[in-house]
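Lecture 7, part B: from sequences to assemblies.

Below are the input chains for today's worked example.
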Amino acid sequence: KQEVTQIPAALSVPEGENLVLNCSFTDSAIYNLQWFRQDPGKGLTSLLLIQSSQREQTSGRLNASLDKSSGRSTLYIAASQPGDSATYLCAVRYNAGNNRKLIWGLGTSLAVNP
Amino acid sequence: SAVISQKPSRDICQRGTSLTIQCQVDSQVTMMFWYRQQPGQSLTLIATANQGSEATYESGFVIDKFPISRPNLTFSTLTVSNMSPEDSSIYLCSVDTIHANYGYTFGSGTRLTVV
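Predicted structure of the full complex, as structure tokens:
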């Protein structure tokens, strides 16, 4: 069964810290992996997309890595700010073409305290 | 990447009534996806909406409860019918812009409370 697990479920840090969010998946034959941010009661904002052939992607203070062989991805947030407080979701896509289902983790709820 | 306008952003509805959620995309897309996110849970795919054909529903979701329209390549609606408090969730539409290397894009969500 294809499953995605995110650890930790919740994280509270002081402003300025560098932090790592983890995403693991049971089936390593992924097509791509995408990290999203969700603010309370809101929709999802795409942060980074990593194709199966890539090892990492960077956007500003965010860096996402992918290790297919170990079934893991990490989202690194540098110099965290209170505005980073949100839930971070990891989603894995296994098939190209018409089967476009995403397998979702439950998310990591992040609180950055001023 | 595509921009999706979803409305309403939130609503409080009486049980037994229906609510229609709309999503408008700023570009033509083949597939649109409708998700439900129950409180404290991750996203669950309800159905895939294809233009010109009936929507494809996931296990546990039926057309009578969640009818979907897809009249053209930029617009879709999801109706939550005969609502009960268990339908209280965030509903999200999404499109896949994978061909542009942007992955999936989501609407801003509809927060539904059924009382």
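Note for the exam: The interface with chain A takes residues 1, 6, 10, 31, 33, 41-43, 45, 48, 90, 92, 94, 96, 98, 101-109, 111 of chain B (CB under 8 Å). Keep this in mind when comparing with the next example.
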